[in-house]
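Hey, I was hoping to borrow your eyes for a little while. For a while now I've been wondering how a particular protein folds. The fold is given in discrete form, as structure tokens running alongside the sequence. Could you read through the record and tell me how the tokens relate to the sequence? Take your time with it, there's no hurry, and the full record follows here:
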Amino acid sequence: MSPLPILQPVNAFVFFNPKTLTSFPKPFNFLRSVTMSDQPSSQNALHISQNYPVPLSPPLPLISKNMELAKAMSASSKSSLFTLSRNDVVYEDQWLIVVNKPQGIYCETVLESVPKLLAESGLEGKAPELHLANRLDRDTSGVMIITKSHKVAAKLVKAFTDHKVSKTYIARCIGSAPQWERITVKSGHGRSKFGAWRVYAASDVGRSLPGGSVVRDMETSFEILLINRQGSFREPSEFRTDDDKILVVEEKAVIDGDAKKDEILVIACPRSGRTHQIRLHCQYLGISIRGDVKYEGVYEWKGTTYEGHELHAESMSLEHPINGLPMLFRAPLPSWANQLYSERSFDL
């Protein structure tokens, strides 16, 4: 059988990786200490009176509304100027194209740029039926897959639904240095009465929420790479699952706002695909992502203001939807991550 035609730029990062993530250990009782008032607040009392589960993460900060509006307007203005270049392409064949989405650009904007990029390649034939296989938040950069037919899109939708796609993200967080090296967080996820995504107790999964939705399960594994630019060097996609602590969320976490703040680089591996999942779990752990104002991340740090959160979809591994070969796609690290690695001190 002759090899399949592949279009691939010089700087592509494509690896065949037959390995899969090992299973996580069974959970043990490892709960964050909590402080609960004897009397519920008026907001909580409303939830209780209607028999709705109470969210365990805080509401959106007041400052986030204006800042999110400003960032949305900035992204909209960039949309008319944005064009996808061959340097943004991680991998391409006749069925799909994998790109490195920039920070501050909507997924839809990237999708709309693909036809022009393909036309510039000089390929003739029927125009492909382009679909987004995965979505990234506006300010999240990294691996994004776009399929070229309805058939391939359907296959990838099933792969994501069946949890046959593994993803690793890298995030720069600010908070007190955790006592754990690796941890898996299991919780509920859903929209509160006012439409914001919040963390719910794991035991609330399946319960109804205002508006008719339900609490769904959410699981993310984290590993610390660097604390204040010190740590053991390893490639971000080399995620380890041995000796994970398991945190099953049932209560509100207590975060000491006056404690010393550290700069923490983590790998995150989401086992589910909920909206803002990694951002919400970082907030719950007390290490909000830098620049993520919506979820209590600092937008000013050591004299510098940040326009967007520092979260990067570093790798994605899956079976090719047509030929079944194991594929690993990796996006080059963004400048903020490269800076951390260039300034790091190793524990050898």
